[in-house]
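Hi F.,

I've been meaning to write this up properly since the lab meeting, where we talked about keeping a consistent format for the predictions we share between groups. The idea is simple: the sequence comes first, exactly as it goes in, then the structure tokens exactly as they come out, then a line or two of notes. No screenshots and no reformatting. I'm using this chain as the first example so we have something concrete to point to.
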Amino acid sequence: EQLSRGRRLTAAEVDELVALYQRAATHLSVVRSRSPDPALVARLSRLVLAARATITGGSRLSWREVGRFFTEGFPLAVYRAWPWWSGVAVAFTVLTGFLMWWVAGHPESASAFIGEDAAEDLVASEFAGYYSEFLPPTFAFHLWTHNAWLAAQCLASGVLIVPVLWLLWNNALNLGVVGGVMISYGRGDLFFSLITPHGLLELTGIYVAAGVGLRIGWSWIAPGPN
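Output, unedited:
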């Protein structure tokens, strides 16, 4: 009890506290199983909790920890998962590029995906209008929340693997078809000039979230060595 009062301990006192903590925890277990006296159990529980708090220390949120997360923790986590999100990035880019190439080379396929009238409207006004429909701050907020929600879905559903693949496929299909239609009508320059400035950053975030999510899901299948 004296060693758990929060004062700074010497190395010898820390060793003594750990030994007493183990002893008190054993006593608490024995008392609970053999003669569970409420008062004694409560006193031993308080002693064990106080000693544990002194040994492990409390965790408090600080701006230093927040800064360390962005400068050390997050970059390290992304680096460790680079094979996964790099694989997602390559597969997504190849699939999207193939869809663009196919739709651009087979204009009739656009009718099967979205309809001929919808394709003409997309090229004439809808695609460019999507970027000018709202004020820039509103549009940026809408775009950010949409992609943040998509990244959160990829990360949270990664444990099931299949939902992540489904989300990636839907986005690759949408991007590939729209890009293919714009290219087939000779407006590829408009498509890439509008989507590239924000698309590179957003897709990178989705790649990382999907890669980490798939890594979490795969750890259930192949946990690896202990």
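Notes:
DSSP finds nine helices and no strands in the chain.
The radius of gyration is 28 Å.

If this format works for you, I'll send the rest the same way.

G.
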